[in-house]
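Blackboard transcription, Thursday session:
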Amino acid sequence: SYDLTQPPSVSVSPGQTASITCSGDELGDKYASWYHQKPGQPPALVIYKNTKRPPGIPERISGSNSGNTATLTISGTQAMDEADYYCQAWDSRTVVFGGGTKLTVL
Amino acid sequence: EVQLVESGGGLVQPGRSLRLSCAASGFTFDDYAFHWVRQAPGKGLEWVSGISWNSGSVGYAGSVKGRFTISRDNAKNSLFLQMNSLRPEDTALYYCAKDMSSGWYGPLDHWGQGTLVIVSS
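(Written on the board underneath:)
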């Protein structure tokens, strides 16, 4: 089975840049998506096809994907960005999620 | 406005069955694939199953293959998950999620609020 590995937690100061990584074998050859999930809410798509933003997602949220690592970058991090973040890809007829990263804005 | 409303969850004994439903509105249902994704209490997301726009292609996670069956009724804008031989480890909040395309490859661009399934004696 295909695995996506994320760090369990990332901390960032308000106004700084947060980077969350997602690692998988030859992940750069696949499309990566990212979701955020706030307590008590369903997940919401924030990045798809590596770099694209759905309507309503601010430009300060961006994505990249190369080699074995996809990265979600949040510039000018705000308190409202505090959430769990999950990466996702598709491999061998299964949808795969990473284990999730808790982003804390200190 | 896209709306996905799950129902059918509840408390069920191990070995029994349950059928989840998802009612969709606000878009052309049969243009898109759909998924079921679950989240155990305090845990991460786990993809359960996906179905293409015309039911021609389906997929399952290894943990549910042979026990769960996904289906859809395009005439009724509804998605279903038949869950048989339930186990305590199936306890989770089950989300219905819309795919951005007609095939179940992801991404999942809209999610319901979920329905809670508890498997316990």
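Lecturer's comment: The mean pLDDT of chain A is 97.
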